[in-house]
Amino acid sequence: MAVAPINEVRKVINYAVTVIPPKKIMMGMPLYGYDWALPYTPRGEFAESVGNREAVDRARRYGAVIRYDQKAQSPYYNYIDEERRQHVVWFEDGRSVEAKYKLVSEYGLRGVSYWVLAKPFPENWQVLDNMFNIEKVIPAR
């Protein structure tokens, strides 16, 4: 399952704006992906958190084809590791974050807040810069 499927994010925002003014809402933005060992079993082993760049590198290493789920607006791929275990990896890319940023504009939200800044994801910053007018605010002393 995608980390933050756009259809589910939209459902949450649809509800949130009925109880909170949109300009007070900061949408969470994941800057990571998950590598799930298959078959997934509830209460079983949780997925490995991976950076988005790391996810692409892993796909390349295993010769996996990256696909894009149109409903979730999220990239993913399957691969088999050295121990012959099947995996599915869901992560974010420029297309998926652009879809989420469009929701911010569509609903007039205050902005976004990021989760897991420590994992490199330069595409996010490029999309952000291309879509929005970024103002750096220096607090008064």
From TrEMBL:
Q: Which GO terms describe its biological process?
A: carbohydrate metabolic process
Which Pfam families does UniProt cross-reference here? Glyco_hydro_18 (PF00704)
Query: Cross-referenced InterPro entries, in alphabetical order?
Result: Chitinase_insertion_sf, GH, Glyco_hydro18_cat
Any one cellular component term from GO for this entry?
Answer: endomembrane system
Q: What is this protein called?
A: Spore germination protein YaaH
State the Gene Ontology terms under molecular function: oligosaccharide binding
- Residues of the GH18 domain: 1-138
Organism of derivation: Clostridium ljungdahlii
